[in-house]
Amino acid sequence: MSHDTPNRLSALVVNLSPESDAVDNSPEAMKFVVIDHGGRLVLVHGSLKEYPYHASLIHEYCESHDIAAAWLKKPDVIEIFHPEVAIRGGGWLEFDQNARRVSIYGFSTAYGKYLASDVRHILQSSNWFAGYRITLKS
Hints:
- The protein is of the alpha/beta class.
- It is 15% helix and 38% strand.
- The protein has two helices and eight strands; from the N terminus they run E-E-E-H-E-E-E-E-H-E.
- It has helices spanning 54-64, 116-125, and strands spanning 11-15, 28-37, 40-47, 69-73, 77-80, 85-96, 101-105, 133-136.
- The strands form two sheets. A six-stranded mixed sheet has the order 1-3-2-6-7-8, sandwiched between helices. Strands 4-5 form a two-stranded antiparallel sheet.
- The longest helix has 11 residues, at 54-64.
């Protein structure tokens, strides 16, 4: 897993669980991964109920973008077979609509810890978390 800096032309946030945006507005813990897709950093996140493994997020992202991937150890590890797509780590995201707060922390056992600089770039380049207080625990 290379952590070279992508050209960072743009960034994107993909929420795989839009309906789980806390109907009752209680804080929700989610998993996330950072993917470098052709120089674009993508933060892919989803609810623990739907995506209990970081690899589940990667699988869904690859399926929806026609990216060749295969399970090495289902459901723990999936490998991407595209030269311009790389997994850059993962972690946990706690989303609290009431407090307008997002906490980002932890790591993925299978894919390692996210780079704080990647996540900062995504947060600065995307409006997805606009209006939220962000806590990034490195």
